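Practice problem 4.
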């Protein structure tokens, strides 16, 4: 699914114009990005949580030349799905655990 597909789904839910759907989707994405940039954790019950993880500096290799390259420390976004979402994606696995 692309961002355009998501806008279409939001627009189809109600009496909204395509522009209204774009504003809604952009607002949600902007809010998530802004919260992550400020270091906040985002938790959406039944869906999952977004947070920032810190990666330590390390020595990597250039795959083309084999030369050693220093990779600096950086922050990366991380998504952890909720148990409900995992069970919806893997319905047979959830039934096997309860049996």
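Answer key:
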């Amino acid at each position: 699914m692309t961002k355009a597909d998501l806008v279409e789904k939001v627009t189809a839910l109600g009496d909204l114009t395509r522009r209204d759907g774009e504003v809604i989707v952009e607002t949600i994405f902007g809010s998530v990005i802004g919260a992550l940039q400020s270091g906040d954790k985002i938790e959406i019950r039944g869906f999952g949580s977004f947070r920032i993880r810190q990666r330590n500096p390390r020595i990597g290799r250039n795959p083309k030349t084999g030369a050693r390259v220093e990779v600096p420390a950086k922050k990366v976004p991380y998504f952890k799905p909720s148990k409900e979402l995992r069970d919806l994606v893997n319905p047979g696995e959830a039934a096997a655990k309860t049996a």
